[in-house]
Each structure stands twice: as structure tokens, then as C-alpha cells.
């Protein structure tokens, strides 16, 4: 579509006829993110509050559809890159964020750990090294004072504030570890997401493939299987595989989204809760 046709459609956005407005809005949504710059320009030049509000809502809808498409493509392509999945979720709240900045921040943490890494280190020594880099050098910690803040679930914000919930801190921890060729993976423990240090990089099929567990929310504390079993008993749950073995990246992103629905629901934000639920439905 050329500029003239686009401008003609945008001029109809303040049409009082609801049917015409809905038709125009839907047409612009299908045109995708490339129309956003023009919409923003019209918003800046307008003094019409109704038109400005309609443009704001329209831009959000276009950006949200773009996030849904990216999330679906991530899942269909195998969901191998956990960091990319987290960046897509981050774009829901921060559509203009610089993806490369997030990637660079992760690389900086990895580089600091790599400089101190010695090939002959034991598994426990490697974990102590990552703990020192993550919690002492870079100052990450659990956000205990504002645990349910939705910002704890957006990787860009967690990397900036150095505060996060258990799952985001665990994600950063495991992404950095895997970049260093250390087999640390997420475990979908109810009520508290944790990590497992495995014997190798192949999928772990039973408990014998796990050396120990790590609590990223508690400065990388190491603990054993008996602690996990005891925690599950407190919750009246049996220690089945889905709670004690590493989970998939789709499981991790699903849990991040569920945390967000809880946060927005508690804040009374029904619109965001509904949108996050659409993302969850897409992941199945």
C-alpha cells in the first residue's frame, strides 16, 4: 500500500461511525508494524484526544499481534533459544527495546565468568564461580520486597535492575552456564523454580543424571534431591519427573507467562491478563 492510501485510512480513524472505525482499524492491523512510524507522526501532530487514544490502542494491538507471531514462530522452530523466548516476552511490555543490548548484557556476564574459568574445575567449583560473578560482581538478587511485581518477569528489566523472581534469575543463570558449556537447566518445581546441574548435555531421563540442584533466587545455593523431595512433601505432591527433572524451554516460557497473569490479575489489570492468556493459549 502506498503513502496516499495509508494516509486516507489514518484520516478515517476519527470517524464517529463505529463500523467504519473497526474496519479501518482491522485493515491497519493487518498491515503490520511498518505503519507504526506514520501513526506515531499523526499522533504527535494531533490535538484530538479521541484520535490520539485510538492511535495508541491501535499501535498496541499491532505490536501485540507481532509478539504473538514471533512467539508462535519461536515455538514452531523448536524453541531452542531460551533467551530469544524471553526477549519476545519482554517485547510485549517494551516493544521498542534494543534486543542486542539484552544479548550484550548476557554476553558480558558470560565473559566475566569465562575469564576466571579453569578447565579442571569441578562442578561445585564452577557453580561457585558463576555465583561469584552473578551475585557479587554483577549484584543480582531476588526481589523479596516486591515479589509479584510484573517487572520481575521481563528480562530487560531484570538485567537493568539486577532484581528478579526465581524463574528469571534461574533463566539468566542457566543461559550464562550453557554459554560456558556447563550443563545447568531449569526445573519446573512448583512454587519455586530451580536449576539442575546434570552429568552431561544430553536430555536427562532419570534422577541419576542430576548431580545436584541450585537455587538461583538464594544466591546459587546448592542442595540435593532429598531437599526437593522434602519440599514436595510439604506441598503434598509426589516427586514425579515433571517436578524433579529438567523441563523444556516452552515449559519455562509458559511459567514466566503464568507468573505475569498472576501479577496483572492481582493488580486488577484485566486487559493485560487477557492478552497474556492469549500468549499462553498459543503455547498450548
Distance between the termini: 35 Å
Overall pLDDT level: 92
Q: How many structurally independent domains?
A: 2
- Please indicate the percent range of residues in DSSP E strands (runs of 2 or more): 5-15%
What is the number of helices? 13
Give Rg in angstroms.
22 Å
Number of strands: 6
Explain this structure to me?
The chain has 13 helices and six strands. It has two domains: 3-76, Leucine-rich Repeat Variant (Alpha Horseshoe), CATH 1.25.10; 82-283, no CATH class. It is 61% helix and 8% strand. It has helices spanning 3-11, 18-31, 36-45, 49-76, 82-93, 99-116, 123-137, 155-161, 166-179, 225-234, 241-244, 249-266, 270-283; strands spanning 141-142, 163-164, 184-187, 194-198, 210-215, 221-223. With 284 residues, the protein is of the alpha+beta class. Helix 4 (49-76) runs antiparallel to helix 5, helix 5 runs parallel beside helix 12 and helix 12 packs antiparallel against helix 13 (270-283). The longest helix has 28 residues, at 49-76. It has a four-stranded antiparallel beta sheet. Strands 1-2 form a two-stranded parallel ribbon. The mean pLDDT is 92. It holds the Pfam family Transglut_core2.
